[in-house]
Design goal:
alpha/beta, Alpha/beta knot, Trp Operon Repressor, Chain A, five-stranded parallel beta sheet, 9 helices, 36% helix, binds adenine
Length: 225
């Protein structure tokens, strides 16, 4: 898979991809993440990528031209399955959406900033819009990192134990059951006996019951779905 991220703040995206699972996925050649600075695609003297809103009002708007030039240069080199604009008013990111996107081969993620992008970008240049939650971030960069992480960990071979993505919360509509590690007792707080019993069938049953209980209590809407 290849993910191209377009941003006017490329530094914000350095650390999420240079550590842990996302770094290893790139080192193993399972995903290629390319971050593109929008500034060089600006044609004006100061290489600016935003301007005042027509009609007035507070906040700068990202201009269409640098975005169009950047997307066009990427599309000249390869074709993309989706060109996604990260936006608080987009489709809400869910595990199911992450699963779908993890099966794509080439994605562009466009990060918005300031008061957003010129509406013509949304009308003509992108294929979908995704939000990571009903709150507003300062820009789309952190949202793009969240979306990339949710997708990349699902690519076969990225997680060392492939079943560990399958047992994530929400993969089967249930929240994951509680987990424990050593010591078996700490300050008098004990690990449930069943987990120390070595009885696999009983452990699996306990985990399933716990997952169901947790989901009913914390996310009842998941059960209905
Ligand atoms: N940009 C700003 N806020 C966002 C959000 N909640 N999701 C995606 N992109 C955003």
């Amino acid at each position: 898979m290849r993910i191209d991220i377009i941003t006017c703040l490329p530094k914000l995206l350095e650390s999420p991809f240079s550590d842990s699972i996302l770094k290893r996925a790139q080192d193993k050649g399972l995903v290629q993440v390319m971050v593109h600075d929008l500034r060089p695609f600006s044609t004006n003297k100061h290489r600016t990528t935003d301007d005042y809103a027509f009609g007035g009002g507070a906040g700068m708007v990202m201009m269409i031209e640098p975005i169009d030039r950047c997307i066009s240069s990427l599309k000249e080199q390869r074709s993309y399955d989706e060109i996604i604009y990260m936006s608080p008013d987009g489709e809400l990111l869910t595990q199911s959406l992450a699963n779908q996107l993890s099966m794509k081969k080439k994605l562009i993620l466009l990060c918005g900033h300031y008061k957003g992008v010129d509406e013509r970008v949304r009308e003509h240049l992108i294929t979908r819009e995704i939000s990571i939650g009903d709150y507003v971030l300062s820009g789309g960069e952190l949202a793009a990192a969240v979306l990339s992480d949710a997708i990349i960990r699902l690519i076969p071979g990225v997680l060392s134990d492939e079943t560990s993505a399958l047992s994530d919360s929400f993969q089967d509509g249930l929240i994951a059951p509680p987990v424990y590690t050593r010591p078996a007792e700490y300050k008098g707080w004990k690990v449930p006996d069943v987990l120390l019993s070595g009885h696999e069938a009983k452990i699996n049953e306990w985990r399933h019951d716990q997952a169901l209980e947790r989901t009913k209590k914390r996310r009842p809407e998941q059960i209905k779905n």
